[in-house]
Amino acid sequence: MRGRRGVELKTPAQLRAMRRAGLLVAQAHDAVRAAARPGVTTAELDAVAREVLASAGAGSSFLHYGASFGLPPYPAVTCISVNHEIVHGIPSDRVLVEGDLVSMDFGAIVAGWHGDGAVTFGVGTLSPERQALSDVTRESLWAGIGAIRTGGRVSDISHAIERSIRAQPHPYGIVAEYTGHGIGSAMHQEPDVPNVGRPGRGPKIVPGLCLAIEPMVTIGSPETAVLEDRWTVVTRDGSDAAHWEHTIAVTRNGLWVLTAPDGGEELLGRLGLRFGPLAD
What we know:
The protein has helices at 12-35, 42-56, 128-146, 154-166, 265-270, and strands at 59-60, 78-82, 85-87, 101-110, 113-122, 173-174, 180-182, 189-193, 210-213, 216-218, 224-226, 233-235, 241-243, 246-251, 254-257. It is an alpha+beta fold and 280 residues long. The strands form 4 sheets. The protein has a 5-stranded antiparallel β-sheet with strand order 8-7-9-14-15. The model has no long low-confidence stretch (mean pLDDT 97).
């Protein structure tokens, strides 16, 4: 079903398929984090995520993506970005070392419906600065989720993300060139969900809307560059970056974080928001 402006609104059956995809995203995140240690390559981590998909008979949202946009077909099921890499890092023979800051983005397809999520974690123990960067980015994600209200506007989310980051004593950079997005029968759909903006703008938030919200934050400048592989996005000044993402469904009962193992119940409760899962 399409709402106004061509935004795809999901039926309960479609949301349940997206929940199954979202749970695979969460499972892959957990499996990759458990496997990440000094001496492991990012390609080996991608293989761990591939096994999650294979075991479930699910598809990858990322593998071969991009050809229709004139980009080289993406060669992996994960994006693994390390330290100054912001997003779209291609898994390779790069060997991880103690203290690396790793962002992993992953998408799964179940019955034609997508789930998309990203986490940032450390290899071993992170420096206080890197840990704070990851924490601030995750907090801004949940600030954005906390701004979702039926009848509100998509830019309310953008404003909440930006406000959360700007409130920090350190002047973190907010990557504005890459945004969150609608998601459903395709990984990237309308509407875009920027990480900065004024409230009260954009499409109205209604039941059936699904959004992938994904702040990307840097310790230094938010200016970016793309490497010769045409995928990997890095900070222009070489500063560290973090990336967190969840797929969220708006239901008639509240919110359902499709890529959180508990559906977001705990953190939605802390934010004073209604947890709105659908019955199986």
